[in-house]
Write a structure and sequence with these properties.
Layout: H1 5-10, E1 18-21, E2 25-29, E3 37-43, H2 58-75, E4 82-85, E5 101-105
Antiparallel strand pairs: 1-2, 2-3, 3-5, 4-5
Bound molecules: guanosine-5'-monophosphate and zinc ion.
Guanosine-5'-monophosphate binds near residues 28, 29, 31, 87 and 93.
Length: about 110
């Protein structure tokens, strides 16, 4: 997608603090972190948001979650606990139209979220 900032990060056209890269997923630190660990895991393939996912995305999603699990281990939060979030739509605050899984950890996370 020509105008997608996360596609540009995948292509190396925009900088990012990459923590993990696989053939199908990329993980990089959020520009505006909300916790000591705040990493975004995205599929290399452009998918708009979690609301359009279907059976054809099974492998892509499995790869994204495998990358998120690896990031949690790498960041030292796997044992302590962490939160995985997909924001969907305006009221969730979703701002970038390329599927991204937030990996948040390193502090106690309140519930319900704001
Ligand atoms: P959303 O609200 O769409 O679920 O989350 C988008 C996230 O992307 C936000 O947490 C925001 O800080 C982050 N973000 C937006 N633009 C960039 C960018 O260019 N680079 C990085 N690393 N993060 C970004
Ligand atoms: Zn994209």
């Amino acid at each position: 997608m020509a105008d997608c900032i996360f596609c540009k990060i995948v292509a190396g056209e925009l900088p990012a603090d990459v923590v993990l890269r696989t053939d199908s997923a990329l993980a990089f630190r959020d520009l505006n972190p909300q916790a000591p660990t705040h990493v975004l895991v995205i599929p290399v393939e452009h998918v708009e948001h979690a609301g359009v996912l279907g059976p054809e995305h099974a492998q892509l999603l499995s790869d994204v979650f495998a990358a998120a699990n690896a990031v949690a281990e790498q960041e030292g939060v796997a044992e302590r606990g962490y939160r995985l979030v997909f924001n969907v739509g305006e009221e969730s605050g979703n701002s970038v139209p390329h599927l991204h899984l937030h990996v948040l950890g390193g502090r106690f996370l309140s519930w319900p979220p704001g």
